[in-house]
Amino acid sequence: MTTPLRPAIMQGLIPTNVPGAFLSPPPPPGFTPQTASTTSRIAHGFHWRQPGPSDTPALHKVWDAHLGAGWSAGTWLMPQMVATGKVHRPRRRPGSSATANETTNWGGGVLAGTWTTAVGTWTIPTVSKPTEAAGSDGGWDSSTWVGLDGSGSNDVLQAGIEQSVDARGNASYVAWYEWFCAVRKQTLGDTSPTSPSLATLNGRMYIAWIGDGNDQLNVMVSTDAGQTFHGKLVSHETSPKAPVLCVHAGHLVIAWIGNGNAQLNVASVTLDGGGVPTGLTGKVVLGDTSPQGPALASLNGNLYLAWNGRGNEQLNVMVSSDGGRTFGSKLVAGDTSPAAPSLVAHDGKLLIGWTGERNHQINVAQVALRGAVPTGLAAKAVLQDTTPFTPALASSGGKLFLAWRGDGNDQLNVMYSTNDGAAFANKYISPETSTDAPTLVDLGGTLYIGWKGDGNKNLNVAPVGVVGGLVTGFTTPAYLFQVNIPNFKVSPGDSVTCSVQYIGNKTAGQIAFKNVTTGVNFPITLVPPPGAAMSGNSAEWVIEVPTINNKFAHLPAFTPVAFTSSIACGLDASGRGLAGNPQNATETKIFDDKNRALTSAKLGDLAVTISYVAPPTG
Questions:
Q1: Do 578 and 55 contact (CB within 8 A), yes or no?
Q2: 480 secondary structure, DSSP code
Q3: Which of 97, 187, 392, 579 has the most beta carbons within 10 angstroms of its beta carbon?
Q4: Domains of the chain
Q5: What is the pLDDT of residues 413-460, one digit of tens each?
Q6: Which of 266, 263, 251, 256 is nearest to 208 (CA)?
Q7: What pTM value is reported for the model?
């Protein structure tokens, strides 16, 4: 499997058995966080900024408790990690408002703010059978953890200790971490023999493709950033090649080649009030033909159409100034390609991409315009990368992105240009594969990629992670769900310190464990999962019932959990440290299926104490 690229903050770290997770090297003899330089501390996984004279007493107090004179190196552990499939996310209490900071499966304290660090120390509780019936897994399951985000955001970085009880009353304890993100790769049930096309309009994502076995054009919409698609339109129009979508003048436009005649077709996709596609209208059939699907782009109120010629494979570009009703001013370029070209509007320019004739090298050029009329190709860049298919182009976050399928290996590749296509860098080679070209689109500043599966023809859509100037991937990492660390031994009564952080100017995440009782400790640095916002909207110190096989577990009885030396940290606009004290947090409670509270919490100075509340019997 291809290892995700590492942000600069992760250079020199040690790979673990989970791709994307890295261990800091152990500190050398004589190392102490109090006297080590900032560079040395960071190199060994200590990303806490040492408080200065202007910082609050709370920051100094927590620093002294965790990294002060009483700190000892202990035993540095290489964690062995096992994915479980469990997931940790909040569950809304029935009847609570959509904005209420109230869940039914988190019990403890949730502190709103803008945080980059959360830390706490607690004693692992003893768990036992409760009076509540066992959950769907046949037992009772809970976790005590520290986290960032998850309340008012779609992602949460968290780490802690799972405490579970089986049907026989046997208790078990294991450390774990997770970086959950609601927006991730989705594999649709729909299939196609060719690649799909993506476009975005009014905050919605649209996907188009030809049917598998019937060649009919299909269009669907997503209102949740590609996590689900619905409202499928199956048109009577057919094509032997993939269609293309484009947004122009507030309308969704689709183009394709005719089945049997290879003529270029352009039409508008009609949408209902909810953005659901209902049909095709205003179809225009051009006299021009192509052996491949065409490309579309909108720039300065004009709609551009590009294709490779039938019989000569020359690149062609035409323009419509009336919304696609007519096209003219055809440019026939001297460049040729065996595959369809791609078009994109970027930085006020119209760019075209194609694969070279015979050598398959990727080419990117600007379409020179006189007014709106295409007059030639300029500033052509010929890349060393090759593909037998159409390279995809998209503009996102001020960068020009390029994606393609490898030549001979089926792997999908992404890189970008910061100079309008003159040069590309930061190539990411994905373990995801396809038998056709991918497609790219921007939605709300996030880049998304779509492709058809290799061997199954299923359509796929995923956010592309771009962190610290690097494309970090679009494959779902194992730690999107709970990853256990069974060789980090913990027992009830052990004192454990755990911290979670966004580090390197939010280019990576880190979770760190220390069993204070045994001295065993380690920090794990994580490549952010694609789609993670890392907003730091909240910090948490909670006990929770997780989700197992899409069903919430049932809570075991537990002895009180007392978080101490607990704080959330961030920086204000001037760079001064901010301290978030749990005494200012909001209490959350765990409720059973009968809406009865099973926990209570006491919020104090740098402390959260969570107690079990046995429901009444009968």
A1: no
A2: G
A3: 392
A4: 82-183+478-612 (2.60.120.700), 190-439 (2.120.10.10)
A5: 999 999 999 999 999 999 999 999 999 999 999 999 999 999 899 999
A6: 256
A7: 0.85
